[in-house]
Amino acid sequence: MKSDIPKHTLFEYLAGRATPLEKKAVEEWLKVTANAEYFHRCVYEWELQSPQYQPDGDRAFARLMEQIEEEKTAAPALAQETAPRRSINWRFWSIAASITLLLSASAWLLRRTILYKNIETGYGQTVSFNLSDGSHVTLNANSALSVPRFGFDDEVREVMLKGEAEFLIRHTPNDQRFVVKTSEQFQVEVLGTEFTVFARPRGTRVALNKGKIRLDYQNDSRKKKLLMNPGELVTLDPEGRLTRRHIGKTDQEVAWKEHRFAFDNTSVLEICAIMMENFGVVLQPGSDEIATRTITGNFKAETAEELLMVLVEVLNLRIQKENGRIVLTTKETISKPL
């Protein structure tokens, strides 16, 4: 939207130099949702042109030393009390360090907010949406996708994923690349295709349904590339070990879109991790024997309670609540309250 507030006025407002009349005009203008995009661009441009906004460690250190010297001059009689003076100095060092860290963190967070739009889902939630290029994304529970506010439609369309998502990528006339980054060590590069990405602490998994994609990853500090074909599943464990296999149909990899859990000889220990990832519920096996039990099948569960009942009924287990967590036990070993 074209701004009816001059850019110079917005810069004065951001710098804290706007007149009361200008300040009121800007604040009224910001109440219009359509002006948000232009304002974000101005904030970013102003930040780049305003180095004084960035924390200046050297100036902060100089001001700190001046303050210490002023205290020494104001209290010469206490000059020989070295222990208290060192204590005060350490306090100033601590305050200065805290302020510098706070300013750095605030500047970083502001930059992230300005540059990226973040779409998040809570536990037990899924959401579908279109990107500005027409690509379609479905986010699984407890996941987040960061999309650039500016320049997304340039040479490379790049997004950052934490969690799990399905991507239906729109091919562009100028063959723009589409990149999904999950970390500095792993990314998926595509043109026009359908695929799912799983990126959580217990590993990364990519399933390709249609088209072609290239994986860029690191193994033993060496950068590697891998071209995937439709029907393939690639997994990368936390230690950097990569496995590749042909699974044919990839329907099971997106079962979560319909609140279904597709288990294929899946252990109870892995299901406990799935419970935490999707519902934020701490579930633990009561013994090593229970942890290694497996389940195969396709089960619908929209809540943690429904998934828990699947485990209890299929494996003939019982549940016991202990200190905010749920423990799976056999019916014979469950403890009785005293």
From TrEMBL:
Pfam families linked: FecR, FecR_C
Name of the protein in its database record: Uncharacterized protein
Residues annotated as domain FecR protein: 118-214
Organism of origin: Persicitalea jodogahamensis
Protein keywords: Membrane, Transmembrane, Transmembrane helix
GO molecular function, one term: sigma factor antagonist activity
Membrane-spanning parts: 92-110
Species lineage: Bacteria, Pseudomonadati, Bacteroidota, Cytophagia, Cytophagales
Domain Protein FecR C-terminal positions: 260-327
